[in-house]
Specification:
Strand 8 and strand 9 form a beta hairpin. Helix content is 31%, strand content 22%. The model has no long low-confidence stretch (mean pLDDT 95). It has an eight-stranded antiparallel β-sheet. Strands 2, 3, 5, 6 and 7 form a five-stranded antiparallel β-sheet that branches. It is of the alpha+beta class. It starts with 31 loop residues before the first strand and ends with a strand.
């Protein structure tokens, strides 16, 4: 008699029961996920049928399924299907079946099955190298290529700048522990940069030594590899001590073990393999057993470790370490089923463009190694054909690094060069010329990017060049002159409004969001906030600096609503603490986003984001109009269960000129006039400051300040606030957008007139 099956409810932090009747399938076959029936040692049988009584002739059965997620190896004909699962042990079902759920498969979906376990590595074999070029034949073909065109392949620069310097240096000493084992930002960063250099030396000397058949380079590579293998996996570069350092050391050992396999004697080979396996095991145990990213997928570093560690390390160890095959199967199944937890069909990334960059950088490499070794192409999944749109619209190189959401290490600095390299890679995959334009624009803006420590500590662009040119043709750039003027990333709740994206002199951009991801991980308490960039100037910005994760600047300012162009209620903002469930609950929803002729519009409900800290909030909504590609109207509606004040916040790079009910930002290339057109609760009290409250002054010593406007209302149970924001080019300082109000009972209408054009905006009263 089978025992009953525990079927927990899904939560905001867990994977969901999918597919179901409400799920829109975007690829064929659909991906199957459910909540585990037990905390440990789950194993399942999955059944999929054309009928809800699951007759044997019309059903597919999969067993054993070791985790709570699965991608079938075959596609489905269009139609309606049913699925269920049960526990499975000792080759038999050991529990009752779960509830049966239905799903539909439409016609003409991208076909993206994942071959069954027994089929995945049939074409891989045991030849080396496995990471890039694949085998001695691959090396021989590449050797001919670079001999014919050393500059066109990128080999000349790679050899001179990324190989030879390491040949003349001795391997690094193992990093020391933190003083008193208490982490400091400086030593944490220096440790992972040291480990990144170990990776560079081993990978680049090994590749050059094998391709050129150069015994001196191979000897130097071997010396660096054996030094790396001597470092203690449980020491200061272990996963639990400094995971960024650990990721790099595991990658270094994987490349060395793979490319220098034939250069090592039996004892050396065993020594390297033992260290590599130990470091790989640390990462696998954390991601799979501790963090359980197949159940709760919002651990940014653990998810990235599948790309940066488990993919190269398990490919390198395959056929020699039994666990490596299990971990590689887990990785492939995760990539094909759950990836990415940060976005979906539209290609968005909830953590923001900086973490899109680091996540995609590791993943793009992993996809290439998987495709080269196992002949499995993750690029077939639709996400990868759209995700380049995300940085194009929300991290546009003609705008500013201060006009986007989430943790962003380049605040006020240059755009991340690696973002451009990722976009070039996606241009090669998709043929999209706009992505190539993005890459070339970034390259033009920062030709010396490779020398900066925050690039050197993460990637070598000359190696990127080598890999890209070996795999892809040159794509012709296409300026984004015909892009969408309103882009809604429904998967993450971000909305970008653009005018003349291709022209930095004429471009106007507003970015806003209301996201189901709330403030989890690298997201902030910024539901309903907005940023404006116009005519080459950042006019409504993100303030502060990315001093370090968990610094006082990070915890007390940048993650908090007080640093956003948003609202406070009685001085309180949205939740941005350390409880992940509350982070996810502090969410928002884009109710509507549309483009109509020359007007863009978005309406957002962000009530849930405030409830933890303002439990008496009944309704917090924000509407934004972009009128005639010229000016913005922001309408805020706040209803409370008791009288309270609202504070309308605005941040700029320059000190603002504050008038009675208006303000002006004057930049070097453009200006912005803001006017509080209407406030139902009475006139606002305006004040300005350049202080960062709650921030340790030592963290920002010597850094320039930005300015913060607070417009505070009188107390009321309901507030309707209408704000006009007019960006202006030089010479347009006297331009004036006029308006008048027409009261109509339940609503009032505002008529805005600019250059002879009049636009009507209705505002619900209900106060």
């Amino acid at each position: 008699m089978s025992k009953s099956l525990y079927q927990p409810r899904s939560g905001v932090l867990t994977v969901q029961y999918e597919p179901d009747a409400q799920t829109k399938a975007i690829e064929n076959p659909p991906r199957f996920t459910w909540i585990p029936a037990r905390l440990e040692k789950d194993c399942y049988v999955l059944e999929i049928s054309e009928r809800d009584d699951f007759p044997s002739g019309l059903s597919r059965t999969y067993a054993p399924v070791p985790y709570n997620f699965f991608t079938p190896e075959k596609t489905f004909a269009p139609g309606t299907y049913y699925w269920r699962y049960a526990l499975y042990e000792n080759d038999k079902r050991t529990s009752e079946w779960s509830v049966a759920r239905s799903f539909s498969v439409p016609e003409n979906l991208p076909e993206t099955p994942l071959p069954a376990k027994g089929e995945r590595f049939k074409e891989s074999g045991c030849a080396r190298p496995r990471l890039w070029l694949q085998g001695e034949e691959g090396i021989a073909r590449y050797r001919e290529k670079i001999a014919a065109d050393p500059e066109g392949t990128g080999w000349k620069l790679f050899y001179e700048l990324s190989v030879l310097p390491w040949a003349e240096r001795e391997p690094h000493e193992e990093p020391e522990p933190y003083p008193g084992n208490k982490r400091t930002v400086e030593l944490w960063r220096q440790s992972y940069i040291t480990c990144q250099e170990m990776l560079y030396a081993i990978r680049h000397l090994s590749i050059a030594g094998k391709v050129l058949d150069d015994s001196r380079l191979l000897g130097r590579a071997k010396a660096w590899l054996l030094a790396a293998a001597s470092w203690d996996p449980e020491g200061p570069t272990g996963r639990d001590y400094n995971d960024e350092a650990a990721f790099r050391m595991a990658g270094a050992l994987a490349w060395g073990y793979d490319w220098l396999h034939g250069e090592l004697d039996a004892e050396e080979r065993e020594r390297v393999k033992r260290s590599l396996a130990a470091r790989t095991r640390q990462v696998a145990v954390h991601a799979i057993r501790r963090s359980k990213i197949h159940q709760v997928p919002y651990d940014s570093h653990a998810v990235r470790s599948l790309s940066s560690v488990l993919t190269p390390c398990c490919i390198s160890l395959l056929h020699e370490e039994t666990e490596a095959e299990e971990w590689l199967h887990y990785t492939l199944e995760y990539f094909w089923t759950l990836y990415t937890p940060w976005g979906g069909e539209d290609g968005g990334w909830a953590e923001g463009p900086h973490y899109w960059t680091t996540g995609m950088a590791a993943l793009l490499e992993a996809i290439e190694w998987i495709r080269g070794y196992a002949r499995l192409n993750l690029f077939d999944r639709p996400f990868f054909h759209k995700t380049g749109d995300f940085p194009l619209y929300v991290y546009n190189p003609n705008a500013s690094t201060r006009t986007t959401f989430g943790d962003n290490s380049s605040l006020g600095g240059k755009f991340g060069a690696k973002t451009g390299y990722n976009m070039r890679h996606l241009a090669g995959v998709t043929g999209n010329g706009r992505y190539q334009w993005y890459y070339e624009r970034i390259k033009e803006m920062d030709p010396e990017a490779a020398k900066l420590f925050h690039n050197h500590g993460w990637w070598d662009f000359r190696f990127d060049e080598l890999v890209y040119r070996q795999a892809y043709p040159q794509i012709q750039p296409k300026a984004p002159s015909d892009t969408e003027e309103l882009k809604w990333f429904r998967d993450v709740g971000w909305v970008a409004m653009h005018y003349r994206m291709d022209d930095p002199v004429e471009q106007i951009m507003l970015l806003t969001k209301a996201s189901k991801y709330g403030s989890v991980s690298h997201s902030h308490a910024d539901q309903g906030a907005f940023y404006i960039h116009a005519f080459g100037e950042a006019l409504a910005v993100e303030t502060g600096y990315y001093v370090a994760f968990n610094s006082t600047m990070h915890r007390n300012w940048r993650r908090q609503t007080v640093s956003k162009n948003s609202l406070l209620i009685d001085g309180a903002g949205q939740y941005a603490g350390t409880d992940k469930s509350l982070n996810m609950a502090a969410s928002g929803t884009v109710a509507e986003a549309k483009r109509d002729k020359n007007e863009s519009y978005v309406k957002m409900d962000v009530t849930a984001a405030y409830l933890e800290q303002v439990p008496y909030a009944k309704r917090v909504e924000r509407e934004i109009y972009f009128v005639d590609n010229s000016y913005f109207v922001v309408v805020d509606s706040v209803d409370l269960n008791r009288p309270g004040k609202i504070e309308w916040l605005y941040h700029a790079m320059y000190e603002m000129d504050l008038q009675e009910q208006s303000f002006r930002v004057t930049g070097k290339k453009a200006s912005l006039e803001g006017r509080f057109v209407f406030c139902s609760s009475g006139e606002l009290t305006l004040s300005g400051s350049n202080e960062f409250s709650g921030v340790d002054e030592k963290e920002i010593k010597g850094l320039s300040r930005q300015w913060h406007l607070k417009a505070e209302s009188p107390p009321a149970a309901s507030h309707r606030l209408v704000t006009l924001l007019v960006p202006k080019k030089p010479g347009e300082e006297d331009r004036y957008v006029s308006y008048f109000m027409d009261d109509q009972g339940f609503v009032f209408s505002l008529y805005f007139t600019d250059n002879g054009k009049t636009r009507k905006i209705d505002v619900q009263k209900a106060f």
